Amino acid sequence: MRRAALLFAIIIASLTLGRDVCAQKPDNISEDAVKAAFIHKFAIFVEWPASKFATPDAPISIGVLGDDSFADGLAGIVDSKIVKTRKFKVSKLKWSKDLKDSRELKDCHMVYIAASESAHGDELIQILKGMPILTIADFYGFARHGGIINFVQEDNSVRFEVNPEAAKQSDLTISSQFLQIAKIVHTEQGRR
Amino acid sequence: MNSQNTHRQFLESALARLVRPVARVLFVTMIVTRMASAQSAQLFPDVTAISIEDLMNLKVTSVSKRAQKLADAPAAIFVITQEDIRRTGARSIPEALRMAPGIEVARIDENKWAIGSRGFNGRFANKLLVLIDGRTVYTPLFSGVYWNVQDVLVEDVERIEVIRGPGATLWGANAVNGVINIITKSAEASQSLLLTAEAGNEERVLGGVRYGNKYGDKVFYRGYSKYSKWASSTDAMGNDAFDGWDMFRGGFRIDTPTNSKNSYTIQGDIYKSAYGETLTAPMLDPPYTSTFRNGGDFSGGNILGRWSHTSTKSTTTLQMYFDRTKTAADSLLEDHQNIYDLDFQHDIRLTEGQEMIWGLGYRSTQDRIFSTPAVTLSPDNRSLSLYSGFVQDEFKLFANQLRITLGSKFEHNGFTGFEVEPNARALWTLDHRQSLWGAISRAVRTPARTEEDMHLNADVIPPSPQSLGLPVLVSVLGNDNFKSEGMVAYELGYRLQANSSFSIDVATFFNSYSNLLSAEPGAPSLDVANGPVHLVAPVLAANKMSGGTHGVEVFADWKFMPKWRVSGSYSYLSMNITKDADSLDQSSPNPAGVSPQHQFYVRTSIDLLKNLEPDVTVRFVDDLSALAIPSYYSLDAHIGWKPAGPMELSFGAKNLTNQQHLEFKPDFINTSPTMVKRTYYGTITVRF
Hints:
The complex is a heterodimer of chains A (192) and B (688). Chain A is an alpha/beta fold and 192 residues long. In chain A, 37% of the residues lie in helices and 21% in strands.
């Protein structure tokens, strides 16, 4: 009886240890995990115009440009999540000359641009200008050039910069609570 | 019969006693790994339950970036992260390198190391290229590294990339057996005030400060200063070897963000260090050898600037640096070196599936040597120019599943003229978890000043009837016609990222060497003019050794439980290097006896309670038969504690299993090797 109780206790302990990574604040987890969590939260704090969703149960579509393995990981995380009654769908995008005409790109609600595609940042901003798509980039300077959000690394933590004017131009509403914790930037002179 | 029965009964009861706890552990492990594999559909953990404010304050490590980089590289690359350095308590670059597979790290005395890759280790090991932030740190004097000079504030090391195998095409000559690339954090990533202090037994102290801030929004800077002092150890007889040393250094770094169209970085350091040692030098009078306390000092500085321009299809980089080193070893020599280096690189994505990188480089080395009777260089000052160019083309085929890279480096140096180092690499992505890579490369090790111009009085053999009753001075002489050493490497590797918690990396190699350094005896002569009458037995540097080496390096990483990581590496090296048929070399040791055949390293990292980080490491290095150094184990432990607030404490111990051991015996210069002892140390780090 005592042995069984001990075994039971060990199992419970190991199960709770296994659960810990979600309930408690882990230290030193990967950058990608934090970015994926932020992307999920951005969907909570942003509102798209009703016309952007074809049906009431259409999913929030996230396009990941330039990092297929991050897309796989992001999909693993948002697959089970629901935000404002909608599920998520993650698609992998690849840069090409025809991307600007691509239906796949324009049907996204959020586009995440990996650091490897930083050279295409300006072009993407032009392509997606005025469309109700939340553009998020993993390189510095994107928001200042007219994108909506970019991640920055500050002393081993991941933070983000938000350009509220760019969001307004794209017909997206960002919750004021969110804007209060974000770092606000403005589109720089010389860029439209 | 009776004893057999009781024997069986004993076995059975022992087995029974063992089976139950083992079954318990197995059952628990099964459940935990079932949970872990349920999460393995994800490549990284789900932290969405954490509030957005807390997410912003989480400290992250780019482990996934590391995995990505490794998965993409057709080379045997191992990355030592800042977290690895912090958790194992490595306080210097050589200590950090101990965890890399395929790298031999042996401490000679408190201020000298022998570090090599895939064989040919020595204090003056010359087949390993070492860079810090893009600046080459090997000295042209002997094509090796003064390891105690290459000191950085370890808290500001972002990562150390260790590439075994020839990196000649991208990095140039002397990257024959490996490249070690030490990368410090950008100023943007080190924006805070950091104070660190360390003390240990054997009077070892260290203090460092670093401050980083930004100017406006686009310019980030940091400055640092560090002082360290190490007390002496003892020699094999237990006598104080006077090998203590100290170093003071400082530096700065200014960056603009790397992902903007144009980015700049400027960095520089200055340093000053004094050291001691016990030296054994030959004499022409009885007793023909003298062991005494010797000393020396280093000082120098460097400044580097790099500009990078990124556009839609290409990246252009221009780098310039100046490095001045002054090294002085009493009784041996004083060496002043100035290096000016200019490098240009252009990276273009020609089409979707083809990327080309090409570059041009120029390096000017000017030295001034102050000789002593023991070591002379003639000419005593020399100016050498190195012109280099490289081109590398990468093709992606079959929907990016196969990547082929072809490239070559072209160099012209002051000693051997024109050298070509081509290579071909292929990476085959089997699926999103596994990849296979292979490479064939040619690399050369160009001559150093010492091989061409040196006169070293290495040893005096006491008089004997064979020497006509006269002492014999053995002089090692450089050779104007010394050729470059050459090698061709064939490598094959495999990588598996089984799930989010287990990965394994295997690298194998077969290297074929030609024209390796040998020491050929020349005709003896009689010297009546320099001191007591003696015979001179000259030994000339020549290229009459060759052969092959082969081996395998395995690295595995297992996140055994979410808070418990186990990683380990095993390296095997087999060397078959022999003298050529026409070589008369009697003195060079067999290189196979100077490198360990087996090495392994196992480390367990646990995240305990809320803020304790204990790490335990076990290392094994096989014996060095030619140096009569036995194999050894080292058990090291380190624990970090982060109580609330900006402070971090840590305590570590090295060499817990043995009181002391020797790791190497020096070559060419007879410095007494000293014991690596059991040490204890504690660190306090404060970050604001």
